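On to my pick:
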Amino acid sequence: MTKDFLTAQRYAQALFELANEQGEDEYVEAELEALSASLKAAPAAERFLGNPALKRAQKRQVIEKLFTGKKPKIEDILVKFLLLLFDKHRFYLLHDVAVSFRKIADESQGQAVVEIRSALPMGEGQRGAIVSRIEKMTGKKMAVRSEVDARILGGVIVKVGNKVMDDCVRTKIGNFKKELTKIHSI
């Protein structure tokens, strides 16, 4: 892990604790993810907000406009948090903070994320069987993210946290090639 990612995790943990204490963690998570997605979709806006030449008061005005009309607690929590990122010159961590916040929130609810990549779209039954097995192994409720990736040729790659279960054809072919190379070089 990089130093920046660890820093983002600490910011996310502090933000989660504050939001959770006020009973607003789910709403803060949604707003934080929406802001991150919006900035990814509008890189010019992200560069504008991340510009160190822009005065704090100007950034505050922009951020307050973004959250005007939201729940007062949310507005207060997120505006102060984003201003802290600006003050510490760490606004660039926003996307990593959003990802870390989601993971922390999921863990606090006894939930984890399972990522399933397959060469073809999976039916509900197939996906359900994989998720059920993973839930039994981990003892956690799983949120599912699926992706179709034709490059894996066939099979499936399942990722939960740091663990990856790779049962795709592409990897098997690569392993077979390595074995053949070993045999040929003997």
About this structure: The radius of gyration is 21 Å.
